[in-house]
Amino acid sequence: MLNMSVHPDKPLAAESKKPKKQSNTLEILKRLFKNKLAVMGLVIFIIYVLVAILAPLLTPYDFAEFNPSGKNQGPSLAHLFGTDDFGRDILTRLFYGTRYSLGLGIGASFIGLFVGVILGCIAGYFGGVAEELIMRFCDLMQAIPSTLLAIVVSMVLGVGYVNTIIAIGIGRIPLNCRMIRAQFLGQRKLEYVEAAHATNCSKLKLIFVHILPNAVSPLIVTTTMGIGGCIMIAAGLSFINLGVQPPTPEWGAMITAGKEFIRLYPYQILLPGIFMAVFVLAVNLLGDGLRDAMDPKLKT
Amino acid sequence: MNNNDTAFLSVKDLFVEYTSDGQVIKAVNGVSFDLRRGRTLGLVGETGAGKTTIAKAIMKILLEPPAHIKSGEIIFCGQNLLPLSNKEMQKIRGSKISMIFQDPMTALNPTMRVGEQIANGIRLHGGISKKDALEKAANMLEMVGIPKERSREYPHQFSGGMKQRVVIAIALACNPDLLLADEPTTALDVTIQAQVLMLINRLKQELNTSMMLITHDLSVIATTCDDVAVVYAGEIVESGSLEEIFDSCAHPYTKGLFDSMPEIGSGGRRLKPIVGMMPDPTDLPNGCKFSPRCPLAADECKTGKIESKKISGTHYCRCCKVRSEQEVR
Amino acid sequence: MGSLVELQGLKKYFQTPRGMLHAVDDVTMSIEEGSTMGIVGESGCGKSTLGRTIIHLLESSGGKIFFEGNDVTNVSSSQLKKLRQDMQIIFQDPFSSLNPRFTVEDTLKEPLLRSKQATRVTLGTEIERIMDMVGIARRLRMAYPHEMDGGRRQRVCIGRALAMNPKFIVCDEPVSALDVSIQAQVLNLLQDLQQERKLTYMFVTHDLSVVQHVSKDISVMYLGQVVESCSSRQLFENPLHPYTKALLAAVPSIDIHNKKEPEIIEGELTSPINPEPGCRFLKRCHNACEQCRMPQELREVSTGHYVMCHRV
Questions:
Q1: In terms of CATH, what superfamily is C3-307?
Q2: pTM of structure
Q3: What ipTM describes this predicted complex?
């Protein structure tokens, strides 16, 4: 055993007073909560999620029920956001729509994340031919504007909820792929990767257990903000009658329906538009706040 | 004011703190020292001791916040620098006090030719034309051992040692009275370090520049300095002339530093490291800051303020266990 | 004791856009079991590349590597797995050589399991055993690298290397990034471990006082070549190669009363890309002559003392 008298880690009195420092994640969360705008964004996001989950409890009406006698009524006590051309309560449809839109935004964003991450890991770690192929594929896809790309994929896959998620998700793959690859190029050179090699670490483990956790932070921000972006693209698709089809109460579809009556009943497009805009704003604020909280350079 | 023996830089009771994430980091805790004109003072200590903070405080280039000079005085040529405005300090920085930093790789602007970088410094304090400034710059390059023709080259075309020479040229271009050098040779190879140290010594003599050299390397101090101050946890624990410190050091930390260095010719004898680590600057111990690691520590060391005692001549030591000049008599 | 690691004409070249970089050029050496071979040189001499090539983190471009008498220059991947258990490495920067997301436990866990030093059941005890061995307090088991200072991080790195139960460890500037008092702690630790576990070290550094302290034999490298190789004592008492002499003369002395003027060598390193045949120290040497342009060889000048300079 080592000579204990020169054991340098004898607990020194001064050190045992020190409280244990928190883990990285906790420090990031602390920084996040100090940012008021980000917290506001988070709160609004949570409210929308709750609305999505509790929609049946919050609304007395059915979102699909036709009610010809009560159509196109302006906002009133009975119908806080008014009714649409089929007599359906707009607020109810918005609340149920939250399920679809949130699902769409999160689903598409995460499809882009998972596929992008895997491709990015392969490109970043292995380099060579694999990297060339994957990067050129990304170049190709990024050369096409995302809405246009979603339209093309939609036309190929056909309309519908799930197909729309896939169509939009595919457009997000190149961004994630590039970011992960860039991170890998930087991390690959660091000595802890060499050390893992030297201790016989398998390639798979190296990529996913060692390097990837150190590469994902920028992606958390872009994925969060991407939710808003995906919803906007879906709205765009609905505008041209692709994407989600009626009677699904998706926000974009509602805005499209409302455009017919923009002069007579402006509330039918305004209120859904504002409802959606608030969500996208909240998600962007949250994403901004996350980026600031994770960026060590801002740490003084 | 022209008396060579008067302290021309005098730091008195300097306290500097950093605030970060709600915590207060006590970087400098009551530092006082004098630097006499024409001499070189070596500030030696390990990482986190506060040496760079002291230098940056003298130049007033600390970022406030998070840094904050709590109290103290920095008297340079009879003038207290701390209350000066930024505009007034700008007249002093570069022309009266200059600083060179540790890492030559990042100290130079990669998009500007080296001649221009030197000339910029000259013009800031000069009022001379661009052409004259560039010529002066080329002369400075020659002075530091780089051919004049290279003044039109960019930093990336120089090696590490040469970059550091350029940095020295920039610092000395306006012939300042005081040069602060923060670990100027730490990032350099041994043979290049020897070249740069010799250069600094030669220029110091030619231009009669006083210098404060910060380093953790005692052998560099031995080669270049006249006086030494040992810094630990934001305090000067021992100070004196080179001979006083190297021949008869008194403070247990200083002794520990000498003992933990492997020396050429000492063979494989076991080193005597100092137990433990420097204290956390957010949670400094009471009394003597070295007491948790000190082999001589006793109860009296752990409370109260430990004063600096005069041992002889210019040799001072901040330790309860050392007998002062008066006590010995 | 025989030699544990032997190198014969080892080469490592890198193809760069400007030409072939001769990082390690024809290195021959023999490292005795249980001893420390010091490799000393300045930036660009190839010492770090040499270490990495020996343990197969880099693929050699030529020459041979022998371990325990067996030719291990080109090994299959299953043989490499076995070899990696015997040969380990400790890096210079304790910060970048630890995964920032791994606690001390995580870092030690994998090597222990992979080298079969521990099973899932005995893992906890083995981790503590290693932590004790390198002097890290057990309470730091779940600590992250950013919560520890450089000295402790380096201990974790040493622990990781030991977890594979190696016979040979390449120490690539293991204390250069540490403070003087922490350096001493880690150097003592390395010495103790060597005695206890009969380890063989290749100690790479630019610091002459550190290298003479830890090494039995020293090889001085310049631009990819070994220019002098001898025992530690011979190097400091009787350096022969002009570069070695210059290196020793350039080290500032702590003795204030014998202030020697450091003899400086002029000039800078020449490029290791497409080097000309002949002595690479030619341009900076005071004693250069025409014959120095011919390819030089490492000759034994006295017992155990090899120099690559025909003028010696």
A1: P-loop containing nucleotide triphosphate hydrolases (3.40.50.300)
A2: 0.83
A3: 0.84
